[in-house]
């Protein structure tokens, strides 16, 4: 994915850094949907307390508000792969999003088509409508 995001998304932050305890350069990026209702974060998995290598793609609904919720979409080994998944997620979300009333449905739509095969956890607040039996 290029530096720019799909039309309905804005890149909020992008950083490259080297942790004090490592020689490896790490990257971090966040994107915000034009509605302000959803933020995507690509960050090293270690930032979430995971003791695994790689990067995590995470979505946060209503970022900055008391009732915001975050869901991990995917965890992959490289930043470039995570960036590619983020691009796919952003395009899918934008295609399904039709205003604030459709946030949960659009999030579920993009999540289902971006998650790893066999993943079982739907985004919070999406209920069970449209979720197949493999998640039970």
Q: How many β-strand stretches? A: 5
Average residue pLDDT:
83
Radius of gyration: 15 Å
Tell me the quaternary state.
Answer: single chain
Strand order of the largest sheet: 1-2-3-4-5
Low-confidence stretches: 126-136
Number of helical stretches of at least 4 residues = 2
Helices and strands: which structural class? alpha+beta
Q: What is the CA–CA distance across the termini?
A: 35 Å
Tell me the β content. Answer: 25-35%
Q: What would the principal axes of the Cα set say about the shape?
A: globular
In total, the number of domains comes to: 1
Following the backbone from N to C, one meets helices and strands in this order, namely EEEEEHH
Largest sheet, described in full? 5 strands, antiparallel
How helical, in percent, are the residues? 10-25%
Biased composition (Basic and acidic residues): 11-23
Region (Disordered): 1-23, 114-136
Biased composition (Acidic residues): 1-10
Describe the structure.
By secondary structure, this protein is α+β, with helices and mostly antiparallel strands. The protein has one domain (9-116). 22% of the residues lie in helices and 29% in strands. The protein has two helices and five strands. The chain has helices at residues 79-96, 103-114; strands spanning 9-17, 26-33, 38-44, 55-61, 69-76. It has a five-stranded antiparallel β-sheet with strand order 1-2-3-4-5, covered by helices on one side. Strand 2 (26-33) and strand 3 (38-44) form a beta hairpin. Helix 1 (79-96) packs antiparallel against helix 2. The protein is globular, with a radius of gyration of 15 Å. Mean pLDDT is 83; it is low at 126-136.
């Amino acid at each position: 994915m290029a530096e720019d995001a799909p039309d309905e998304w804005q890149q909020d932050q992008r950083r490259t850094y080297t942790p004090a305890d490592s020689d490896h350069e790490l990257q971090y990026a966040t994107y915000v949907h034009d509605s302000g209702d959803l933020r995507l974060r690509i960050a090293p998995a270690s930032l979430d307390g995971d003791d695994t290598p790689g990067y995590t793609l995470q979505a946060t609904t209503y970022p900055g508000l008391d009732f915001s919720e975050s869901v991990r979409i995917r965890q992959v080994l490289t930043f470039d792969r995570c960036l590619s998944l983020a691009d796919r997620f952003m395009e899918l979300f934008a295609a399904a999003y039709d205003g604030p009333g459709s946030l949960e449905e659009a999030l579920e739509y993009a999540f289902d088509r971006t998650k790893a095969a066999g993943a079982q956890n739907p985004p919070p607040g999406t209920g069970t409508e449209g979720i197949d039996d493999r998640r039970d």
